[in-house]
């Protein structure tokens, strides 16, 4: 498939949450959009978060009231638009009076409850712990408040799907290797990292949304100095067997003033994180260190009755957050807000670059960036994403959808159906249609992953490797042995050519 000389209004570089959000918004306003991502969608920062839709309670201590208010206001919009991959979650904060006095926590929670309007999420309250809970017996008092949980990688993939449905072309495994500014447009050279094929296209504007690579893109691809640098901070997480049987998450205070979350994860596990460590080097090579693992375990062991060892860690991951570089001495105080830089030489084609950001405010960031774009495209339409459901999100409740799909597919095992609902929502039907038994789902790979779902992910969600499927799209890697991974690799090697041409998925247009 050749794209030589195709013309676009906008080329978005970067397939993380910000890039796909901008591509979705811009395409929905009538612009002709191409998004390129050199790896898989959500392959870096956007799949390695704490997986929270939250205002950021601890940011109040750093007086980031505007950021917290903006994030709090976004929570409920996101929860409404994507109920399959996001849902409300209660957080329990054990009180440790030598770290923060009760009045300070109550004040912070009061602000958290009232800085933005709440309709879905209940407010905070004081609670007491007893011996029936998972915490140590000396911890008896605490607080409880609301935030939200999100499957971060699926958020990115479904945002890309929504962009595609609005007309955007999504090209994964495609690197922007060179861009030259002309009089009214950019000449952009794209290279497939699968086939090494190169194509040159033109665009009236470029959006640099490459996350940790945002500053590097200037020197390597655009041949110009970066207007500002980012501060790379590594955040690491560990996954262990489930620590508490209830559905609440825990937010733990530590002596260094940091907080660590313990979040129910994928039914049988607890997700623990995060760290804040200054990072230099290739963001793709970020790995958790033994010191970070021990740091997280020590905090959990100081609070929970059950004591964890490094051998209890089932999985660990690290992501590099591209934060705006300020004067803060330590990483935890660096702002999670975002900014834009617009570069335009006279009447020449513009370049918009995104610096910073957090997953909760991705839609607002995309809206603001697209507003800047639309200054150059007066024919574009207005705001539309605040009430736009992501694919599969057109339902009211998990329980209601579960009951409906159970009537339609009574043969489906409960565990498989539950995961489909929180992965695909109403789009579960696209996989299950024409199936009347588990056998119709085809070959079983691991956990709840069957051949029919694998084929769907290849054809509809740009999946090409076992890592794409097991980790970013299904989380079934938590149950996979080396033999399971090898079997899936073999299957993909034998079948991927049916769905890929010229290094691109056939459905990318």
From TrEMBL:
Domain Alpha-glycerophosphate oxidase C-terminal as annotated: residue spans: 385-490
Keyword Flavoprotein: yes
Enzyme kind, highest EC tier: oxidoreductase
Residues spanning the signal sequence: none
Domain FAD dependent oxidoreductase: 9-326
Keywords: FAD, Flavoprotein, Oxidoreductase
Domain of life: Bacteria
GO molecular function terms listed in the Swiss-Prot or TrEMBL record: glycerol-3-phosphate dehydrogenase (quinone) activity
EC number: 1.1.5.3
InterPro entries: DAO_C, FAD-dep_OxRdtase, G3P_DH_FAD-dep
The protein's required cofactors: FAD
Matches recorded under Pfam families: DAO, DAO_C
UniProt name for this protein: Glycerol-3-phosphate dehydrogenase
Species annotation: Marinobacter salexigens
